[in-house]
Specification:
The chain is α+β, with helices and mostly antiparallel strands. The protein has helices spanning about 10-25, 30-45, 85-90; strands at about 1-5, 55-60, 65-75, 95-100, 105-110. A five-stranded antiparallel β-sheet has the order 1-2-3-5-4, covered by helices on one side. It starts with a strand and ends in a 10-residue tail after the last strand. Helix 1 (about 10-25) packs antiparallel against helix 2 (about 30-45) and helix 2 packs antiparallel against helix 3. It has one domain (about 1-110): Heat Shock Protein 90 (2-Layer Sandwich), CATH 3.30.565.10.
Length: about 120
C-alpha cells in the first residue's frame, strides 16, 4: 500500500500525477495512464471540500489483478449528481464509489489489468 498526503490547494492534482504514474508502473505498467488520470480527477474534486488546514489522503493499493485508488478528504460529500468526478472515472475504472466516513468523504476506484483473449489475466 502506498500513501501520500496533500494540502487542499489547486496544485494538488498536478502534484500527485507523477507519484501515481510511478507507483502504478511498479506493479501494473499498463494501468499507469488510467491511474494518473483517476487520481488527478479525484484529488481535484477533493480540493474544494478541504479546508486550508486540512489534508487529502491518497492511497494506491496494488493487487495481482489491478490497482485500488482511494482519495479521502475531511469535507462533506458532494450531493448525488452534483460532482464531476464520476464522468471521467466511470470511463476508466472497473468499479468506483464514494462514501461518508468519520473522517469526511472517501472516493475510490478499481482498475483491472487487461485480459487476454479467452479471459486469462496476464
Amino acid at each position: 500500500m502506498y500513501e501520500q498526503y496533500l494540502h487542499g490547494v489547486p496544485e494538488a492534482a498536478d502534484t500527485v500525477r507523477r507519484w501515481a504514474r510511478t507507483t502504478a508502473r511498479q506493479h501494473h505498467p499498463a494501468l499507469a495512464d488510467e491511474c494518473e488520470r483517476i487520481i488527478a480527477r479525484l484529488v481535484a474534486d477533493a480540493v474544494p471540500r478541504t479546508p486550508a488546514d486540512g489534508l487529502i489522503k491518497v492511497v494506491i493499493i496494488p493487487s495481482l489483478t489491478g490497482l485500488r485508488i482511494e482519495v479521502g478528504d475531511p469535507g462533506d460529500p458532494v450531493p448525488s449528481g452534483a460532482g464531476s468526478e464520476w464522468a471521467e472515472v466511470s470511463t476508466l475504472a472497473a468499479s468506483f464509489g464514494a462514501s461518508r466516513t468519520a473522517q469526511g468523504h472517501r472516493a475510490w476506484a478499481e482498475l483491472r489489468k487487461p485480459t487476454r483473449a479467452g479471459g486469462d489475466v496476464r
